[in-house]
């Protein structure tokens, strides 16, 4: 679907594709032989071929960020469940403070009224 100059052949494509698809294609660079062949590949393999083994290895090597696991003790506290949840939210910076509401564009100011 590219012409001799390496650009998208809009005349040819517009006769067979809907406008919505054409707009999506416009956001993609046309194939260019100078950049090498345009092929699909699996980035976790040197030969670019998909294997279940490479997928498993990629997923199992995922490093979980290190946390201070002391917060696990929160769940063993002898307090009401809502207090545990509140403390857990506070430890993980998940309380919906006005500063957080402002960061999420839910408030016009980060100041507490």
From TrEMBL:
<protein>
    <recommendedName>
        <fullName>Reverse transcriptase zinc-binding domain-containing protein</fullName>
    </recommendedName>
</protein>
<feature type="domain" description="Reverse transcriptase zinc-binding">
    <location>
        <begin position="50"/>
        <end position="112"/>
    </location>
</feature>
<dbReference type="Pfam" id="PF13966">
    <property type="entry name" value="zf-RVT"/>
</dbReference>
<dbReference type="InterPro" id="IPR026960">
    <property type="entry name" value="RVT-Znf"/>
</dbReference>
């Amino acid at each position: 679907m590219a012409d001799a100059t390496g650009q998208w052949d809009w005349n040819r494509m517009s006769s067979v594709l809907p406008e919505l698809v054409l707009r999506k294609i416009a956001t993609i660079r046309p194939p260019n032989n100078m950049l090498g062949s345009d092929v699909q590949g699996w980035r976790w393999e040197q030969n670019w071929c998909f294997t279940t083994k490479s997928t498993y290895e990629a997923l199992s090597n995922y490093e979980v960020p290190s946390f201070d696991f002391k917060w696990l003790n929160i769940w063993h506290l002898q307090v009401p469940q809502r207090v545990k949840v509140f403390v857990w939210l506070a430890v993980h910076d998940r309380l919906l403070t006005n500063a957080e509401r402002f960061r999420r564009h839910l408030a016009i100011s980060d100041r507490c009224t």
